[in-house]
Design a protein that fits this description.
Blueprint (H helix, E strand, L loop, with lengths): L17 H6 L2 H10 L14 H22 L3 E4 L4 E2 L10 E5 L9 E2 H4 L5 E6 L4 H15 L3 E6 L4 E8 L4 E4 L7 E3 L4 E6 L2 E6 L2 E2 L3 H82 L1
Parallel strand pairs: 2-4, 5-6
Antiparallel strand pairs: 1-3, 3-5, 6-7, 7-8, 9-10, 10-11, 11-12
């Protein structure tokens, strides 16, 4: 059978439609996945938005990655990773989460090859085009079946969230509760706090990298202080035990000395009584000799 031809347009790279993908051999699929660009075409590239945008998306990915690693759940997290749905134009959200999949390094997320698309997408807006994220992406991500979509407007410090109505393939706004937006996908709550996007579980904020470092440093300092205190207490206990040993040895020495003196006194008393008895006996003898 002749190979099925499929050419990737460098100016508009797309994965094959699902009907065509199903006809490809494993080798052809692998070749296409490897050839799909891992960067935006020049015509589609977004202008850089500076440190606030970059730091917000990296912080979100690191916090979530650390959390899911700690609880032992396999969640793939990508940042500006090209996503290819069958026959759709490539796009790359600031953060994507795909639940319960194998974790390994990827250059792109090809839905046909992976067997599923992202479960959640997060976009960070700072100086870019808000209409793309607030309008076009809302329609597009819902149509593609991404279960949840959140937008963090870093400049205005606003958070918005949508959840998929699966029957109609449209998004419904997620209504906040006391400023928190619940995520069914992550099992967490999202909230803007101190100009940052924070993730919560059970009312407690998930720690960020610097917070974890500071916490570990504090724990190490406390551990070092506790160790120093224990060493001092141990040294004091050793000193007290040594003093107690010396005190007991001194008491034993004094008791032995007292016993020795008492025995010596008794011995001397016995000698004195013996000599007195001998003297009395001699006196009686002498008296008897005169009569």
């Amino acid at each position: 059978m002749a190979p099925i031809p499929y050419r990737i347009d460098p100016d508009d790279p797309r994965a094959p439609p699902q009907e065509l993908w199903d006809q490809l051999s494993p080798e052809e699929r692998t070749r296409i996945v490897e050839e799909l660009p891992s960067e935006f075409p020049v015509s589609e590239a977004n202008p850089p938005e500076g440190d606030p945008h970059f730091e917000a998306k990296i912080r979100a990915r690191e916090v979530l990655g650390s959390f899911f690693s700690r609880i032992g759940r396999k969640v793939y997290l990508g940042s500006e990773l090209p996503v290819y749905y069958p026959g759709e134009a490539m796009f790359a959200p600031d953060v994507i989460a795909v639940m319960d999949v194998e974790l390994h390094s990827r250059m792109s997320w090809v839905v046909s090859a992976e067997g599923k698309g992202p479960d959640l997408a997060v976009e960070i807006v700072y100086a870019g085009e808000r209409r793309k994220d607030m309008e076009r992406n809302v329609e597009r991500y819902a149509r593609l079946g991404i279960h949840e979509y959140f937008i963090f407007d870093r400049a205005r410090l606003r958070l918005s969230g949508w959840r998929l109505d699966k029957e109609r393939r449209v998004y419904r706004p997620i209504l906040p509760q006391h400023g928190c937006y619940g995520s069914e996908v992550l099992g967490l709550e999202l909230q803007v706090e101190d100009e940052r996007l924070r993730f919560y579980r059970g009312g407690a904020a998930l720690p960020e990298a610097q917070e974890m470092i500071a916490r570990l440093e504090h724990m190490m300092e406390r551990s070092e202080a506790n160790r120093s205190e224990l060493e001092q207490r141990y040294a004091e206990e050793v000193r007290l035990r040594e003093e107690e040993t010396r005190r007991r040895e001194e008491e034993t020495r004094l008791r032995e000395e007292e016993t020795r003196r008492r025995e010596e006194a008794e011995r001397r008393g016995e000698d004195t009584e013996r000599r007195l008895a001998e003297a009395l006996a001699e006196l009686e003898r002498l008296r008897g000799g005169r009569t």
